[in-house]
Amino acid sequence: MRPLVSVLFFACAASAVAATTRPATAPARSPFARAIAYAQERSVKIHGAGIALEHGYAAGTIVSADGLILTADGLIINTSNLRVTLPDGRIVGAKVVRRSEPLQSALLKVDVSTPSFFEMPDKSPVTKGDWVLAINNSFKVADGAEPLSVNMGIVSLVADVDAKRKVQDVPYDGDAILIDAITSNPGAPGGAVVTADGTLAGIVGRIMESKATNTRLNYAVPIERLRPFVLGQEMIVGPGTPKGKPFVGIRLFTLGGRKTPAYIDRIAPGSPAADAGLLKDDLVLAINGKAVRDCEDYQELEAALAPGAPATFTIKRKSQITQVKLSIREETAHATPTTAP
Amino acid sequence: MQRQQRLRRVGTAHQCVIAAALALCALRSAALAQDEGMLLAPKAFRAAVERILPSVVIIETYGSSATPVAERPAPGPRPGPRPGGRRGGGISKPGEGPTTGLIVSADGLILTSTYNFLRGQPIITVVLRDGSQHVAKLLGRDETRKLCVLKVEGVKDLPVPKTAGPQELKVGQWAISVGYGYGGHEPAISSGIISATRRMSGRAVQTDANLSPANYGGPLIDIEGRVLGICVPLSPQSRETAGGTEWYDSGIGFAVPVHGAEGLIKRMASGETIRPGWLGIRPATESKGEGVTIEEVQPNSPAAGAGLKKGDIIVAINGQAVADTAALADVMNKLAAGDSLTLVYKQGGEEKTATLTLAEPPATPVPPVRPATTRAATSRPVASRPARG
Predict the structure, then answer these.
(1) Is residue B7 less than 8 Å (CB to CB) from chain A?
(2) What pLDDT, in 10s, does the model give residues A193-204?
(3) How do B340-347 and A175-179 pair as beta strands?
């Protein structure tokens, strides 16, 4: 009887210890250990050109058995001396296969076989709130054959971001996976962003600044957008058919400057704005759901309207907010808003 | 006898092996359970966010005078590591995106951060979770907490969220931030833990969830979707309106608790602007833990008006013992201009009591009486450090 009691006691005590504290005796483990090891075996360090704020190092993600490597685009790959440090520490030269401006990404190739590589899912393996692990070489802390660093976070939001690196740069275009692991550091772009089970969700994007928040973004370029780029199936968007200039019939009150709210000063008689019942002193709050914070926003959004298509204007009249539909026409010589009283 | 002993030994050894095996199993299953819990956490994050969303609003402002918040001169990648999060981590001006607020009354009071109104007091609208957009007014603000209150007219039965009190707050518990700063109609979320339950003299909790312009004004919630606080940029080093934004991406974020803040919300809703309170003394930096000796009393200050003098020792304020300067700062930082306080002090060995009302700090700093000899205490004009006492 006694042995059984003490065995039970031991078992209970042990499980109590295990449940209440992180037991010092248990081997160090993490639910993410396997995913991390898997991802690190498929991630590389990249060294290339660098000058001033363009750092000459990055991370890369192996996506085929014959040496295709995804990384972020940038000055770093503008060199004949582009080198890749493979997971086993071997350093090999790399060539640029192609680059994508909207994805701000590049595809490299090394002439060695890379039997450990990531499969590329054709649809996103993550949703908001999911754990993600970002493999990176922030500040070049991983040396030689040392495994790359890992930062953990969750998916904050998957959204179309308006972000640029510098004012004159081409912005990143389209959906990005915003994450709350800090990856907006030199050496992180190009690293694999994987799920808790090691599935590739994207690569750490080039360092960009969000127009919405004026902060650097921590984000991944989604794998479902990178896959066609790797496979050479990227859609080429043609110039499209030229469209005429839109005519709305609104003239704003701009005496205070372009940064003042978009108050309507005049409505052209017989114009789409007049037909929709808009009045002088109405404030335009949004066009097709996009906020019009000032006159400058208005000019930009109005210019982008398509003649012949309806547009929804959100209007504030006194303290009432309403939405009105306008049928945008094409501007003709005599249809411009009149300045005559 | 011998045999019996041997048997017992064998029995004991046997027992140990079983115990060890069971213990290992227990450890392993507990560890596996822990793993599973961790892997399931995203589900809990999403559920918590779903619970709070009906009470979270999008704030749009119109007309921007675009006042810069100069912290960082030039954009571009960071020059190097930013251990303190200060250097190069700030933002040059507020972004163009919307901001976030939290419903705190069924008839349309919205609690948010003053950060969201850096560009003056433009036209404000609030978008509720059902997509309806309403005009809102800025009623009042608390500059010591970077909070302000908006009012949406013509609404009723808005969902007021549950809040979690201080006794339910533990370092290490999950904390999730929610904010609409990136635009669109779905908020961005960030998860982390509570890093400290009391910071900035008890005005804020600290978290390692990413707090930034993407969620200033929005709620920090617990794993059950209850509000722990409103995300605000606070900085121990700065009282500027945008001070604290430079801490984004640093792993240090602050949220001001909403639980028990009804009085504060009421004051802001009545149009009040709460500013730091000014007592008008400079405390001695050294203390024996039995009170704070007054090094200097500024002329025309509440302290001077109450008859406090150099050399007096403050022992208690509002019934709370003031053992040293840290305790004094702690009590003072909870009070604002206009607040009355009862002060117990020793003057020439005699214990006295004074009742006084804290003033707003004088607009022009009073120059220090003596030349600067020690670091922080005299490196800045005394009067510009009002809340320290």
Answers:
(1) no
(2) 999 999 999 999
(3) unpaired
User: How many angstroms from the chain centroid is the CA of residue B270?
Assistant: 22
Question: Nearest Cβ partner of B188 from A139, A156, A196?
Answer: A156
Domain A246-335 sits in which CATH superfamily?
Answer: PDZ domain (2.30.42.10)
Confidence of residue B96 (pLDDT cuts 50, 70, 90): confident
CA distance B289 to B294: 14
Task: Specify the pTM.
Answer: 0.80
Query: Is the minimum CB–CB distance between B38 and chain A shorter than 8 Å?
Result: yes
Same domain, residue pair B178 and B292: no
CATH code for the domain in which residue B352 is found: 2.30.42.10
The CATH number of the domain covering residues in A33-230: 2.40.10.120
> In angstroms, how far is the first alpha carbon of chain B from the final one?
80
Using a CB–CB cutoff of 8 Å, tell me whether B31 touches chain A: yes
CB spacing of B42 vs A131 below 8 angstroms? yes
Please tell me what DSSP assigns to residue B186. Answer: S
Span A46-55, average pLDDT = 83
Contact of A133 with A194, CB cutoff 8 Å:
yes
The dihedral region occupied by A317, where left means phi > 0, alpha psi between -120 and 50, and beta the remainder, is: beta
DSSP per residue, A38-85: HHHTTEEEEE---BTTB-SEEEEEE-STT-EEEEE-SGGG-SS--EEE
A246, A285, A295, A306, A324 from A303: Cα distances, Å: 7, 16, 12, 8, 18
